[in-house]
Amino acid sequence: MPNSSSVSEFLLLAFADTRELQLLHFGLFLGIYLAALLGNGLILTAVACDHRLHTPMYFFLLNLAILDLGCISTTLPKAMANTLWDTRAISYEGCAAQVLFVFFLAGAEYSLLTVMAYDRYVAICKPLHYGSLLGSRACTQMAAAAWGSGFVHAVLHTANTFSLPLCQGNVVDQFFCEIPQILKLSCSNSYLREAGVLVVSVSLVFGCFVFIVLSYVQVFRAVLRMPSEQGRHKAFSMCLPHMVVVSLFVSTVMFAYLKRPSISSPSLDLMAAVLYSVVPPAVNPLIYSMRNQELKDALWKLMTRCVSDAANFQSASADDS
């Protein structure tokens, strides 16, 4: 039986068999990828350039946009390149790098969403202490902790997964390297080690989820006690995008990893992976900008400035010619 030392590359799951469908999938995912780049790039630029957005909430949103860009850029470009060139191959090192970065960025994003829930809790339930509890130093430390926890878990899972002997070939039934699919290639008696690591991770994930739920229970109680309808509306507008993003992230990941094996199939696994790795990074900028007037104003100001600069440059070029 082959082991991990004899595997030099893996074969990923193809989106389609015919060339026409391959090109159709390439165009579809290229559009989604460009939309994710544009949306998250605009949020990054708006938050960085508009001093009115230099607050803890938008600092965490900037970090979320960076993580979303990294997450979708880890999986989709390689899949699109394979589709365009009609190949399925990814090197052993490239597969390990994908696993590392997917776990790192997804784990850091989940930790950051937990921190953002705390930010909303303090802003609504303890507004008088907001400046002291969420100063610039505290925000930097919490963001660093989110990134660091994601990296530690990613290194742990990646090292553990790729130290297992591979006894079932090199065909990965997914469009990117995913730990459950790689574990299917390992010897059956090697699952126990990864199972132990997964138990620790699930415990931490569940702990963060409980923290988010409890934070929003306190937030809702505080909002419902507000005498002003305008104040309640503003508070809900601040919290709704984060709740939608958390719900989208958690529900798609749970669907991908906790569905019953009896209903599992390559097409369903592919759809689940697209839902949690491609859809959230593409739609998160839209979710956050829809009900946030400050962010919409900053984005409109940014786009107006870009159009004005482009018009001035074109006018200057015409005058020079």
TrEMBL record:
PROSITE patterns membership: G_PROTEIN_RECEP_F1_1, G_PROTEIN_RECEP_F1_2
Transmembrane segment boundaries: 23-45, 57-76, 96-118, 138-156, 195-217, 238-258, 270-288
A GO cellular component entry from the record: plasma membrane
Membrane topology note: Multi-pass membrane protein
UniProt entry keywords in alphabetical sequence: Cell membrane, G-protein coupled receptor, Membrane, Olfaction, Receptor, Sensory transduction, Transducer, Transmembrane, Transmembrane helix
Keyword Cell membrane: yes
Localisation: Cell membrane
Span of domain G-protein coupled receptors family 1 profile: 39-288
Recorded GO MF terms: G protein-coupled receptor activity; olfactory receptor activity
The keyword rRNA-binding belongs to this UniProt entry's keyword annotation: no
Chief localisation class: membrane
Domain of life: Eukaryota
Annotated family: Belongs to the G-protein coupled receptor 1 family.
Physiological role: Odorant receptor.
Protein name: Olfactory receptor
Species, as recorded: Cairina moschata (Muscovy duck)
